[in-house]
Design goal:
The structure is a homotetramer of 215-residue chains. Chain A has 215 residues and is mostly helical. Chain A has one domain. The first copy, chain A, is built from eight helices and no strands. The radius of gyration of chain A is 18 Å and the shape is elongated. The C terminus of chain A is likely disordered.
Chain lengths: 215, 215, 215, 215
């Protein structure tokens, strides 16, 4: 029974990893090849796409690391967790779309709408992630025995910080698209830096502390 | 010999998982970035694409879970099963196409044709799935010893319900595209709900009961 | 050392599986959504794309099965085999392109050129496959001890039959595109049928006999 | 603890492999189907795309082999290595873009800009790779006990040669696009040849010597 549970967990992990790896690699398809000449001007003109490509890549990478850290506590997968995970992946596979919209419109008239959609996507991801984490924690009997309450509280706290941060990013985007996108970039950099600093020793729970949780 | 059989099963599973993961992630590529402004109007205008994206995502997720549940009974893979599985995957990789057609035409003149194509695709998937399940059951000697006849009958029943449901969805689509798509959505929600309710304990056969079987 | 060799083999297999799974799933992206109305007419009008999609899917599936059957004999991977495999994958990832060309032009003026490109791609794949198989056989010390000369001869024969078949398909395409494509379809069906018939028992070497070898 | 470290390493490897496999397979999507007729002329007209497709495929294949060779020394993954690897993958998933730009513009007025962007991408990859290798070496305690200083020096040397080679390729591209691309091709062929020659015996560290290191 335990073996079957671990096999199911491994599969869920492998499937999720596949989706993360594909979503992160598909981002490049949203970069349009400038057809016109001079080419140099065309390349410089797509800077918003290059910026949103880079930002989304880093953010998905952080989310991938956090997803692993969360699943490291799981020893079995029931239907609830499977669909909570699927709901989370739904929003993650969606990321290339707001990324493309941002790349196309950041230098245009409607930059603020694009930035709000972009930051709003991560608000939605935070909500889906909270449901996912709740499905893990509610099934406490499936957890590895070494999950302390402190860890649960830490992830909960990180999820709350992430939620608020992206709600603020949506609000800021309404005032200034560049400020909103800049805040998203600052968040990504902060969580990357925090992950590197906190986990030099490679704890078993990976990167599961800090606001990086919500990606 | 048994070890070789399990290795082959694992590979078939991994290959199928890869195809499911890619198909579910490719769906986002069918979402077109609105070029025109105002952007907000453009984004609201692609609601049929967002709806069909979400519906297909959830449906593929259910199918992925069921595919695993079916393969959990298999201990060896012969040529027949390999190609029956491949035939099923053929239709699953096809799903992004009717999804895109639905997204493009649901708000247009020919919405009913698009909805019939969409529901019809799942009729075809049901047929392919029945052949796949038959290839598993016919090779009973390859099955894990714990597959009861009750389970076989349960999957057969679920396949029949799924087939009829989607045939009805095709017929309903002929009358009203939105009603047909609404039925497809109701089916997906019902199977999701059923999977979560029935499998809280994470039985070894995963999600293999209920009409969710046919996705 | 042996363990390291098997680990390398597993990785090569996993990487190749990934490429096969992605290539087979990307085929759907070449199906264009008809924009115009009536939609039904538009859908019927893309029959060449649907046909080439199906044909390429089945052919890649056969090749995937054969690739596994060949690698089942390998116990270690050196640089030569790694690049021979990579060269083979180069042509396999290329398949979506002639598939798309065929879909676009089969009903047009230049159908014969499209069919020749399509069949010609599989001639090239046969050549690459022969190099790949030669890299396996030349490194006989890496093979599992159970590879009989008969098996080597069988794969060699299958490769020769495949090469000649696709050269004939190129020639036939020069006379009639539909006849050339029909021949490619007949080959795919024959190999599928042969694989199912010969391997009901699931031998350890998978599908490695018969012309299916060359896909 | 060691087991957990190896599990994390395996996951990083699997994720990276997925990204490599997807990036290498996505290259084909950049090949545009000629719409016009005569088709033969259209096919001949996209030779720059076919050339850049082939070149990028081979180069990514070499990088994949080297990535494995580097990770073969790793026994644990901390946050620093995870993000250093992610930073490297960022540039590798980017490769389809300069590949498409090169294919579109190599026969045009601005070929030199396209070639400089192409070669410049591999300069950036070399820098990212140096950071990745440094993250591995700095965490010496995580390395397999069998990593000799000679190996570290060899990879360092290969990275330096690769960096200089691609800087030269950028400079040469400024004078002549074809010469710059020709140099990139020569580098890929040389590293392929060297990998095959040096590693006939399949050493455990894979392809980790020689300038092939930097891909």
């Amino acid at each position: 029974m335990q073996e079957a549970g671990e096999k199911r967990t491994t599969r869920l992990e492998a499937f999720s990893d596949g989706v993360f790896a594909i979503a992160i690699t598909l981002l490049v398809l949203e970069l349009r090849v400038p057809e016109e000449e001079p080419l140099l001007e065309g390349l410089l003109g797509i800077w918003p796409s290059l910026l949103s490509f880079t930002l989304s890549f880093v953010t998905i990478l952080i989310m991938w690391a956090n997803h692993h850290a969360n699943l490291a506590h799981v020893r079995n997968v029931d239907g609830r967790l499977l669909f909570a995970n699927g709901f989370l992946l739904l929003f993650i596979t969606f990321v290339p779309f707001p990324t493309a919209v941002l790349g196309r419109h950041l230098a245009g008239e409607d930059a603020r709408v694009a930035a709000m959609l972009y930051a709003g996507t991560f608000v939605a991801i935070n909500v889906a992630w909270a449901a996912f984490w709740r499905a893990i924690v509610k099934g406490r009997s499936y957890l590895a025995p070494d999950l302390p309450d402190r860890e649960v509280a830490s992830v909960n706290g990180a999820l709350a910080v992430g939620f608020v941060s992206y709600v603020v990013a949506v609000a800021v985007s309404w005032l200034s698209a560049m400020a909103g996108v800049g805040l998203c970039m600052a968040l990504a950099l902060f969580w990357t830096w925090q992950s590197i600093r906190h986990h030099g020793g490679g704890h078993d729970h990976g990167l599961a502390t800090g606001p990086a949780e919500q990606g």
